[in-house]
Amino acid sequence: MLLHGLGSSATDWPEQLAGFGPRCRLLLVDLPGHHRSALPAGRLTVERMAADVERLLMELGEPPVHVAGLSLGACVGLALAFQAPARVRSLTLVNGFARFRPAGARGIRRMVARVALAAAAPMTVVAARVAGSMFPKPEQAHLRRAVARSLARTPRWTYVAALVALATFDARPRLASVRCPTLVVTGDGDATVALEAKEELARRIEGARLVVVPDSGHATPGDQPERFNRIVLEFIGAH
Predict the structure, then answer these.
(1) Which of 24, 19, 23, 22 is nearest to 1 (CA)?
(2) What's the total number of domains in the chain?
(3) Would the CA dihedral through 29, 161, 178, 218 be positive or negative?
(4) 36: domain range?
(5) Count of alpha carbons within 13 Å of 55, Cβ hemisphere only?
(6) Quick check: helix, strand or coil at residue 60?
(7) Is 210 helix (H, G, I), strand (E, B) or coil?
(8) Tens digit of pLDDT per residue, the chain (239 long)?
């Protein structure tokens, strides 16, 4: 089961569809408020998103799943492991965190700018800015365009509500309760989430392993798909 990042959708895993598809049955989810999933009434939290994912697994009658989540999706996957451990066979946390920590002063500036844009600018502007920061290299223009299209269709209220959900998420007291095999993946150039936040996941989840992917930013499945796919397939193949 693949869980996407903030403002994205189940359509944002093309390289994983190609790389995992021949070996795995994939379940791709639009998290609440994203793309084809409605934003529920009331306050949106990471835990509530995880409860919706658990309900989906129950309705589909799925056996325990290997969960891989990027950023927001990693947080939702972590919450799912807390709330429904019997549903999670293994956990891959990609550039996620138990408590958000920006990647230094630059990360703080980026986050402040993102919040300000989300509050006032058209979503097309927000999408272009975020896509540019995720894929800054000239040869990544096709990735920038794809991410900008995906983010631009996310309603402003969903985006803001999910930002607040991430800002208030704190899973640190429960990390030691995770018992499933866990892989923590980080891009070595992630300018959004501090490396220390991912090292904390690996340190405090019993038996967790940390893998650093070279020449990768916050969107590791997109900017280093072959390495990412190989790492995850080897991990789930061992479990």
Answers:
(1) 24
(2) 1
(3) positive
(4) 2-237
(5) 8
(6) helix
(7) strand
(8) 999 999 999 999 999 999 998 889 999 999 999 999 988 888 999 999 999 999 999 999 999 999 999 999 999 999 999 999 999 999 999 999 999 977 666 666 666 666 667 767 788 988 898 898 889 999 999 999 999 999 999 988 899 899 999 999 999 999 999 999 999 999 999 989 999 999 999 999 999 999 999 999 999 999 999 999 999 999 999 99
Supply the pTM of this predicted model: 0.93
Instruction: For residue 131, give every residue at least 6 positions away whose Cβ sits within 8 Å of its Cβ, in sequence order, or none.
Output: 143, 144, 145, 147, 148, 151
N-term to C-term CA, the chain: 15
DSSP assignment of 166-184 = HHT-B-GGGGGG--S-EEE
Q: Is 196 helix (H, G, I), strand (E, B) or coil?
A: helix
Instruction: Answer positive or negative: Cα dihedral of 139, 185, 68, 8.
Output: negative
Q: Annotate 18-33 with b (16+ C-beta within 10 A) or e (fewer).
A: ebbeeebeebebbbbb
CATH number of the domain residue 170 falls in: 3.40.50.1820
